[in-house]
Specification:
The two termini are about 30 Å apart. The strands form three sheets. Strands 16-13-12-11-7-10-9-8-17 form a nine-stranded mixed sheet. With about 375 residues, it is α/β, with parallel strands linked by helices. α1 packs across α9 and α5 runs antiparallel to α10. It is built from ten helices and 17 strands.
């Protein structure tokens, strides 16, 4: 690693890769060394566009195909934003080539496939991480303190979240998220993954003992073999009676909120995936009180806003930049972080169990049996 920087290769020119190019540029201990595409001209245009926004010196080079990038000696790690249906193959090849891996979500088409991929990473001693940016926000660490202090929220009893956006015109015709042969989980994989991850995080990575999933609407692309969920709701039940619900949709207008209810109060935030624009991130806690004074009935909110100094985006303190900074710092220790692949696997397990529950015509509930972790 030259100049103590992790040298990144990007497989493909997906739109999200532009954001992560700048995140790598802002991280302070990473640099993009190359981009591979099935079309060399497309990779060259991608590099030129990104260099105009955040320039690396030397400029990253174009690789004619993915395999060429994976075998390059000047690439230490790869970012893989390819469609879920083909992602697994290239994650495995990257592991076999000794490259550390950050991949988009969902991480695989099934729990079985992800187990195989993670075993390949362990066998080849490479670090694996999924691209859930909010996991690296300083705000999340502050929220953890609140949940663990026993006073602000108390014992968790309920977690609820929603992540939605209303698909633009033409989305269902051309976007891969509406095509089951590329993204078989639809909105559940694209949006529900974050809701499930938040619930698991809040529960300190305990798996639910039972899940219930419901496809509320779906879309069948003419070129795809099956429909994908376009609206999905899920219910997770944990030991001790703690429950969690989530809703994700390509039909509902943009929202991304999470709420944790406890025996002594609540914690809520309106932007748990993508922080609202600004130089700080924030969340609220509250413990409403109800008082009866003769004929007067008073409900007082007792809310408190907490803020954390970190940028919402495009800055070294932003969560996406911290993801790549933290990843490089971990790799540079020479040791692997086993928690990162473990929580990816648990998220995949819950997501798959929700989908299977929704497919079950006879019983909408099914137990979740941990596999591989």
């Amino acid at each position: 690693m030259e100049n103590s920087s992790l040298r990144w290769g990007i497989l493909g020119c997906a739109n999200i890769a532009r954001k992560n190019w700048k995140a790598i540029w802002n991280s302070g201990n990473d640099r993009v060394a190359g981009v591979a595409s099935r079309e060399a001209d497309r990779a060259q245009r991608f590099i030129q566009d990104c260099q105009a926004c955040a320039a690396f010196d030397p400029a990253p080079r174009v690789f004619a195909n993915y395999e060429e990038l994976l075998t390059a000696e000047d690439i230490d790690a790869v970012y893989i934003p390819l469609p879920t249906a083909v992602r697994g193959h290239w994650v495995k090849r990257a592991a076999e080539a000794g490259k550390h891996i950050v991949c988009e979500k969902p991480c695989a088409t099934s729990v079985a496939e992800l187990n195989e991929l993670l075993e390949a990473c362990r066998r080849n001693q490479v670090q694996f991480l999924d691209g859930v940016m909010f996991m690296h926000s300083r705000r999340l660490a502050r929220m953890r303190e609140m949940l663990d202090d026993g006073q602000t929220v108390g014992s968790i009893r309920r977690i609820a979240s929603a992540f939605c956006f209303r698909a633009a015109e033409g989305f269902y015709d051309s976007n891969i998220r509406a095509q089951s042969h590329l993204e078989p989980y639809g909105c559940l994989g694209d949006l529900g993954w974050y809701c499930i991850r938040f619930a698991l995080w809040a529960m300190n990575w305990k798996l639910p003992v039972r899940v219930k999933g419901e496809v509320l609407s779906e879309f069948k692309h003419p070129a795809s073999p099956a429909p994908v969920p376009t609206e999905f709701s899920g219910e997770l039940l944990f030991e001790g009676g703690v429950s969690s619900s989530f809703f994700c949709s390509f039909l509902t207008d943009t929202e991304q909120w999470a709420h944790v209810s406890g025996t002594r109060g609540f914690l809520r935030l309106q932007d748990f995936v993508l922080p609202f624009a600004g130089r700080e991130t924030a969340f609220d806690t509250g413990r409403p009180t109800f008082e009866v004074k003769g004929c007067d009935f008073e409900m007082r909110p007792n809310d408190r806003r907490w803020s954390v100094e970190e940028s919402s985006h495009g800055d070294a303190s932003a969560q996406e930049s911290r993801l790549f900074h933290n990843f490089a710092a971990q790799v540079q220790t020479g040791a692997l972080n086993p928690l990162w692949p473990e929580i990816a696997l648990k998220t995949q397990q819950v997501m798959e169990a929700c989908r299977n529950s929704a497919r079950d015509e006879h019983s909408r509930q099914r137990p979740l049996t941990p596999k591989g972790g």
